[in-house]
Design a protein that fits this description.
Blueprint (H helix, E strand, L loop, with lengths): L10 H9 L3 E17 L2 H4 L6 E13 L4 E9 L3 H11 L11 H11 L8 H21 L3 H5 L5 E6 L9 H13 L4 E5 L5 H15 L5 E4 L6 H11 L6 E3 L7 H10 L4 E3 L6 H9 L5 E2 L3 H4 L2 H13 L3 E2 L5 H9 L6 E4 L13 E2 L2 E3 L12 H5 L1 E8 L1
Bound molecules: magnesium ion.
């Protein structure tokens, strides 16, 4: 037993009991979030996927013996939600009795519990919800927003809207939503491209650039639907629109192809959202396959692996623009050394009681402890499965 902190009045003694705290229970929930309209990006127009009508959320709520609580979440689109829930339920018992502060150790323990199904993809996406809940819990216990616990470089992050620029929307609607986003204080606008008809893509980009004017940051996202020859032609054609970046011009795993584009054209290349592990990001970064890396914490296994990707990206001198899940990524982007971007989607708003403040082109880190979110009654109503794991 430690004897170096026997005075109840000392800060060390006050911190002591926390290290004796243990995870007492875990609750996981599968929540089906409906979308207002079916969503189509280029993967739908090329026939690879059906329009998206809902997002399958995986929530984890972790409670300790001392009554501390953390909430985390992951997600899947179109397929995978029931698989993520099933894997999370199977490995959750290894959390019970662990010190919730030992997040790195717990991440390893969870991945070893499911080692047979690998260290990427669905298996680590099930771990992500737990990992994010543990970081939320740790920051809440410290009384700090997660960004502050990690060590923030800033208290707000540049933000751009994606949800208004999908391909199911006619151009008039895209223009209207882009104006509304800018009026709401969102700094940039991203639109989807990658249609089989490249001329139609270029017409939409030209229309949005003309509508917004030269001063508004504009990005495009091809969602992996070009081959290398098409990507070269399109990057050349798009170089004149002063885009902040061209996203996923090629297959997500074609790091060499992305590196060729990044080295050839003036417009920065962004990619990484589809990668599902630190190892995959490490390879992308090693090959300089992106000027701007786009990791997604729920997709790569949580905040613990995301911090490793941040380290690699910063060391390589790259920019960061995390994919989706702004409620988590605003904190992580705030802790990145180089001025990043956070992607604005309003889709997850109904799941939480609190909402992020946006003004002046930036998304602000709230002063609430942890992630700063509480699961809403609406999210509870959309819950289709739960599992409670106790010691
Ligand atoms: Mg994208």
């Amino acid at each position: 037993m430690s004897t170096d902190s026997t005075s109840a009045a000392s800060p060390v003694a006050a911190a002591g009991p926390a290290t004796l705290d243990r995870i007492a229970s875990v609750r996981i929930s599968s929540v089906i979030l409906p979308l207002a309209v079916p969503i189509s990006d280029a993967k739908v127009l090329t026939g690879r996927q059906r329009p998206m009508t809902e997002v399958a959320m995986l929530f984890a709520e972790i409670t300790t013996e001392s009554g501390h609580e953390g909430v985390g979440f992951g997600y899947s689109k179109r397929a995978g939600g029931p698989g993520q829930f099933a894997h999370a339920k199977e490995i959750a018992p290894v959390l019970i009795g662990e010190d919730p502060s030992d997040i790195a150790k717990i991440w390893d323990k969870l991945v070893w519990a499911g080692a047979s199904v690998g260290r990427s993809g669905l298996s680590v996406q099930a771990i992500a919800a737990f990992d994010i809940a543990l970081w939320d819990l740790k920051a809440k216990r410290a009384g700090l927003p997660l960004a502050k616990l990690l060590g923030a470089h800033r208290d707000s992050v540049r933000t751009y809207n994606t949800s208004g620029g999908f391909l199911h929307a006619p151009i008039e609607e895209v223009l209207e939503k882009s104006s509304a986003a800018v009026a709401a204080g969102i700094g940039g606008i991203k639109i989807k491209v990658g249609q089989p008809d490249s001329a139609a893509d270029l017409a939409r980009v030209a229309a949005v650039r003309e509508h917004l004017g030269a001063g508004v940051p504009l990005m495009v996202d091809a969602n992996q639907q070009w081959d290398r020859a098409t990507a070269r032609r399109m990057c050349r054609a798009l170089d004149g629109y002063d885009l902040v970046w061209i996203e996923e011009p090629l297959d997500a795993y074609d790091a060499e192809g992305h590196a060729m584009l990044a080295a050839t054209f003036d417009t920065p290349i962004a990619t990484g959202e589809m990668l599902t592990s630190v190892a995959e990001h490490a390879e992308l970064i090693r090959l300089r396959g992106a000027d701007i890396v786009q990791p997604d914490a729920p997709r790569i296994g949580g905040i613990t692996p995301f911090l490793k990707v941040m380290g690699l990206a910063d060391h390589a001198g790259l920019s960061l623009a995390p994919h989706f899940a702004m409620e988590i990524h605003v904190h992580l982007a705030a802790a990145y050394a180089r001025e990043p971007w956070v992607e604005h989607f309003e889709w997850l708003d109904p799941l939480f009681d609190e909402h992020l403040e946006i003004s002046g082109g930036r998304m602000h880190v709230s002063d609430r402890p942890g992630l700063g979110v509480t699961i809403s009654e609406q999210a509870r109503a959309w819950t289709v499965a739960t599992a409670n794991i106790v010691g």
